[in-house]
Specification:
With 390 residues, the chain is of the alpha+beta class. It is built from nine helices and 20 strands. Bound molecules: adenosine-5'-triphosphate and magnesium ion.
C-alpha cells in the first residue's frame, strides 16, 4: 500500500460521485482448506448507504462480512475503514456491530438487560443506560417490552431486540447477516420496510447479506451480486434489474427470457429468427458488419401477447398459471424457444399467439460462461467465451 493510500481519509477506489467511502475492500482473497472462497473481492461502501451482498448459498457473503467484522482474517487484500487499515484492529475496537441470523440473545436476561449488556460491560452510568436502552427499544418498536424474557417473544420481536442491542453502542456500520431468515414471509416484508426506515433515521451504514433477490431489490441503495467468491455486478437495484451484466445476473435477479442473438450494427439485434430495433449500440470491441454474438434479455412483464402476425414471434400457448396479480404464460414459439410472459389477461392452452416487445425492453449483454446453451436454441458455430470482467 502506498503512503497516500495509508493516509487516513484517502480513498483508494475510484467513485465518480465523489461520495465519502466509509469502507473500502480491495483484492480480498480467502481460502479454506485449499479451496478459494473469495477471489479478489473489490468494492467500496459509501457513508450512510444500505448496501447488500446478494448471492446463492456458499458464494462467500458471510465470509466477506466476517472479515469486515474482524471475526475472520483475509489471506490477502485491503480492508480500509475511513481510510485506515482495519485488519490489525481487533473486532471489539471496530466501530462496527453485527446482527446474526440466529440472534444470540441471552435467554436468562430480560429484554432490557439483553439490550443493556454492552453498556454494562463498558460501565456506563445507570441513568444513561436507562435512557439509551429506552431510546433503542423505541427505535425498534418495542416500547414497554423491557421486562419480558426472551422466550416470551415472537421471532420478529427477538429480531428487534437483537437490532436494539446492536445499535445501542452507536456503531458507524451495522453488518446484518440474513437477519430476517427465520421470520415468516409477512413478518419479513414488514421488517424489511422497518429496517430501511431505521437505517435512514439512525444514519448508520448498513451492510446486509441475503440470498433473497426481492429482499435485496426492496431495501438496498446498492446491490453486490456474488457467485462462487467473485463479484458479478455492483449497482443500484434498478441498474441490476434493467441492465444485468451477464446471463447469471439476469437469471438470478427476477425472471427473464435469455436468448442467444447477433448484432451486426448499432441499435439492431437478430434473435429468435427475426431482426429487431433495440436501444443499445455495439459493444466497443465488436466489429461493424460482422456477426457479433450476444445474449438478449426480455423480462416476462415486457412481452405482449397479441394475435399471430408475420412480423411477430409466433407460437402456441403451452401453459397458464394464475399468480395473484398476473398470469404466468408459457409460449413455445415456432422456432422452438420457450417464452415466459406475465400478463393480466388470460389466454387458453393451445391458442396461437404472436409475441411483441418494445425496443427499449430488449436488453443486450455480452456472452459469458453463464450464457444459455446454444445447442438448445438450435444455433451452431458459436462458442461461449470465458466470462471476462472488463
Ligand atoms: N470456517 C470455515 N472453514 C471451512 N470452510 C468455510 C468456513 N467458513 C466458510 N467456509 C466455506 O466457504 C464458502 C463460503 O461460505 P460463506 O459462509 O461465506 O457463504 P454464504 O454466501 O454466506 O452462504 P449462505 O447463504 O449459505 O450463508 C462455503 O463453501 C463454506 O463452506
Ligand atoms: Mg452466510
Amino acid at each position: 500500500m502506498s503512503e497516500k493510500e495509508n493516509k487516513k481519509g484517502a480513498q483508494i477506489l475510484e467513485d465518480k460521485t465523489g461520495a465519502e467511502h466509509i469502507i473500502e475492500i480491495k483484492d480480498l482473497c480467502k481460502s479454506f482448506d485449499g479451496l478459494q472462497v473469495l477471489k479478489n473481492i473489490t468494492f467500496y461502501i459509501r457513508n450512510n448507504e444500505f448496501i447488500t451482498l446478494l448471492g446463492p448459498s456458499g458464494c462467500g457473503k458471510s465470509t466477506t462480512l466476517r472479515i469486515i467484522a474482524g471475526f475472520e482474517t483475509a489471506d490477502s487484500g485491503i480492508v480500509n475503514f475511513e481510510g485506515a487499515d482495519l485488519q490489525t484492529v481487533p473486532a471489539h475496537k471496530r466501530h462496527i456491530n453485527t446482527v446474526f441470523q440466529r440472534y444470540a440473545l441471552f435467554p436468562h436476561l430480560n429484554v432490557f438487560d439483553n439490550v443493556a449488556f454492552g453498556l454494562h460491560i463498558k460501565k456506563v452510568p445507570k441513568d444513561e443506560v436507562k435512557e439509551r436502552v429506552t431510546k433503542a427499544l423505541k427505535t425498534v418498536g418495542l416500547e414497554g417490552y423491557d421486562k419480558r424474557y426472551i422466550d416470551q417473544l415472537s421471532g420478529g420481536q427477538m429480531q428487534r431486540v437483537a437490532i436494539a442491542r446492536a445499535i445501542i453502542n452507536r456503531p458507524r456500520v451495522l453488518l446484518l447477516d440474513e437477519p430476517l431468515g427465520a421470520l415468516d414471509l409477512k413478518m419479513r416484508k414488514e421488517m424489511q420496510i422497518e429496517l430501511k426506515q431505521m437505517q435512514r433515521e439512525l444514519g448508520i451504514t448498513f451492510v446486509y447479506v441475503t440470498h433473497d433477490q426481492e429482499e435485496a431489490l426492496t431495501m438496498s441503495d446498492t446491490i453486490i451480486v456474488m457467485k462462487d467468491g467473485i463479484i458479478q455486478q455492483i449497482g443500484t437495484p434498478i441498474d441490476i434489474y434493467n441492465e444485468p451484466k451477464n446471463a447469471y445476473v439476469a437469471d438470478f435477479i427476477g425472471e427473464s427470457n435469455i436468448i442467444p442473438g447477433k448484432m451486426r450494427k448499432d441499435l439492431e439485434v437478430t434473435f429468435a429468427g427475426k431482426t429487431f430495433e433495440c436501444v443499445d449500440p455495439l459493444f466497443p470491441e465488436f466489429k461493424k458488419g460482422e456477426d457479433n454474438d450476444v445474449d438478449v434479455v426480455v423480462r416476462p412483464e415486457d412481452i405482449y401477447v397479441k394475435t399471430e402476425d408475420k412480423d411477430r414471434i409466433n407460437g402456441t400457448v403451452e401453459s397458464i398459471v394464475f399468480k395473484g396479480v398476473h398470469y404466468e404464460i408459457m409460449v413455445k414459439s415456432d422456432n422452438g424457444i420457450d417464452w415466459m410472459i406475465h400478463d393480466v389477461d388470460p389466454v387458453t392452452v393451445g391458442q396461437r399467439v404472436g409475441l411483441t416487445f418494445d425496443p427499449d425492453d430488449i436488453h443486450i449483454m455480452r456472452r459469458s460462461q453463464f450464457s444459455p446453451d446454444l445447442d438448445s436454441f438450435g444455433v451452431k458455430g458459436s462458442d461461449k467465451e470465458e466470462n471476462e470482467d472488463e
